[in-house]
């Protein structure tokens, strides 16, 4: 990460996991002028919150890596609401490790498994009036963000407050490999 930090030029924030799991980061464009207000992470390397101010507007940027185990995932998502502040402009993104719509965003494998965490994310979406940017912008497209050669799923998502959707021009998902 030091290599990325020194060569990239923009500010980066990290919560490191093991070499095979966990760990999240937030990378800022070097041209973005902002003031860092607060930076926090959990002790499991699954959550990173960076609070910034751009001009007079405050934002809370939240990146998550949900647990693979369904029971741990549900607990994690229930606790996540304590890191989200409805009075701020927050953006939630991450690897949620479950599929919101098994029929549409899971290809292969058992189509009756893989959505545990859906109830909890739906509560967050309703409580905080957030929506999945990709689903809003491309409702008829099918995209997967993870695959093992046999099963392919859309696990990574980007949620923003509903009023922000009109400002989103495009969204891409690209792997960042070190």
From TrEMBL:
Q: What InterPro entries does the database record attribute to this sequence?
A: Endo/exonu/phosph_ase_sf (IPR036691)
At the top level, the lineage of the source is Eukaryota
Q: Which Gene3D superfamilies match?
A: Endonuclease/exonuclease/phosphatase
SUPFAM superfamilies attached to this UniProt entry:
DNase I-like
Record protein name field: Endonuclease/exonuclease/phosphatase domain-containing protein
